[in-house]
Amino acid sequence: MRFSRTTKYLLLAALVLGLVVIYFPLLLVLLNSFNADTTFGWPPTALTFEWWRRVVSNEGALDALWTSVQAGLSATAIALVLGTMAAFALQRYRFYGRDTVSLLIILPIALPGIVTGIALNNAFRTILGIDLGLFTAIVAHATFCIVVVFNNVIARLRRLGGNLQEASMDLGADGFTTFRLVTFPMLRSALLAGGLLAFALSFDEIIVTTFTLGAGLETLPIWILNNLFRPNQTPVVNVVAAILVLASTIPVYLAQRLSGDTAGGGRL
Question: What share of the chain is helix, strand, coil (3-state, %, to 5)?
Answer without folding.
Answer: 75, 0, 25
